[in-house]
Fold:
Amino acid sequence: MQTSSTQLKRVAAIHDLSGFGRCSLSVILPVISTMGVQVCPVPTAVLSTHTGGLGDVVLRDLTDYLQPTLEHYRSLQLDFDCIYSGFLSSVEQVDHCLEFFRAFPNALMVVDPVLGDHGKAYRTCGPELRKRMVELVKVADIITPNLTEVSILLGMDYPHEPLTASTAKSMLAKLSELGPGQVVITGANLADNTLANLGYDRERGTYWRVNCTYVPVSYPGTGDIFASVLVGGLLTGDSLPIAMDRATKFIELAIKTTYSYNTDPRYGVMLEKSLNWLTKDNLLTGYQAL
Structure:
């Protein structure tokens, strides 16, 4: 197998590329690279912008690109430390992601099940894609859904009321029963009037929470950034709660920085002003047992 001459970890990132709006590969590449991990983008689609209110998006589906790319990587005898999937633009891309997972069985398999937000499925994610996303979840080592995606994956109603600790633990455990040994739920409102990211490590039987400050604005791409910092942290030696803490603190920094400039929320967070934080040896002690 061909490995990096500097022994950097290497990630195959199977996501879309949106040219404007700071989401998907346009944030995944700089975030993980800044953390000292090589990113090999495998675009599932190319979009002029993200789909959140920026007019008529130009989209080019790249389903027919994925299989030849995998074959080329095999011919080069490349190896990957992580396969990290996100937005899929067709049902057939589920099969191609599964092929990537099978081709690199020793890689950390991360699935960000991009299906919806704010209680609704994305219009690009039809019933069949929502159904088949469970197949990726079943073979994943770790998944990073928001609460909308949790409800879709578990076939339950979206939880409009804040979650008790017992309800949150039940959701995490049920998601893990689908397959992944580690589960992280992002952006959960809890019954103790806190906003938190939640985690579960089945092997160790531990449940975690990292509280975060609520800011009254919603930016695209924050889920991509969170999951990318989580991946970078896990690949460079973080435990699950420390990786969650790192991702939470970075997202909070990026959101608060952007909010202070009062920019158009559709343009995403000002990642460029925050990336340097990821290069520092930050003390992370904000995680706690759920």
